[in-house]
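User: Sorry, what's this?
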Amino acid sequence: MNQPHPYRPTIPPIADGEPRPLWSVMIPIYNSASYLRETLASILAQDPGPDVMQIVVVDDHSTQDDPAAVVEELGRGRVEFYRQPQNVGLVKNFQTTLELSRGKLIHQLHGDDLVRDGFYQKLERAFMENPEIGAAFCRHIIIDEHSHWQYISVLEQQESGVLPGSWLLLIAAFQRIQAPSIVVRREVYEKLGGFDYRLPTGCEDWEMWVRIAANYPIWYEVEPLAMYRKHSGSITKATVKNGIYSQGMHKATTIFQAYLPKENAGELYNHTMQNCAFHCLEIAQSLINTRDVEGTINLIQQALKFSRSFKVIRSAGRIISLDVLPELVRRTLQRPSNSLTIVGKQPIDKEEAQ
């Protein structure tokens, strides 16, 4: 898989004789400097020194804030800074972080995410004691705009250790890893290539984790040592709402079918499509709180394109009956009597619901 690929850029190896730290902590950022202080502070509190850890902020040509000033203020020469000459998009900015990395272990920590005390120490131990693993990740905590805990990711197994080979089917069924929680050997990226350019934000990493799991053992740390921030202005949420994310999930699923055991591929594909549908419905439910009926209906339609299983149709029906219809009625009653037409897209037509 280390041959040139039309959609996966090559990650060139580090030249012989060039000094290499153990760690490369690479921080892609775009218009989120307000969170960067907290991100850098969480890293620097665990900093083993420049001989052991490279720390780089890679800015995708931010236009609304000044991440360079934050790096200068907190980094004080310890943190490297690279600014793209023009905006290249999130996936290609990820590629730049891989190319600039010099360490043996790469941690891509988004500019609004965090690590907790012990992250680098515990995952370093996993790599040192298990030279066969290609990646290691920990349980993660979902936080909001104010860094308040929302919930903790599912427990993959009861004790820390190498995951069984069957875990490949679980990660292929649904995105179970968030970027701040995973560390990958650089040599793995050198062999498998970078992130696939065909996939939009939020899908490119899922395909990568499946690709790695299909080729290497993966270590799991049960302690939640990473924090992934979810907020209303996130790029991922915007791409979910407009349908780009749904198309990307379908594309990613199609791509990594080739990585999976043939005897499981068909059944797993249907299961993955159902999970993608539930993801759309989850976002649809959250949009009701903002009274975004049109966005909600759009997401329900996306969900039904993924799967029309009984469970999906039942869940979609509950959202329509309990949330969408009351809001549509409220809107209708507030309109003048000579304009009693329902705004937005029609709910789900008969063909969609069958």
In short: Residues 337-354 have pLDDT under 50 and may be disordered. The beta strands are 23-29, 53-59, 80-83, 105-108, 114-115, 135-143, 149-152, 161-162, 182-185, 218-229. The longest strand covers residues 218-229.
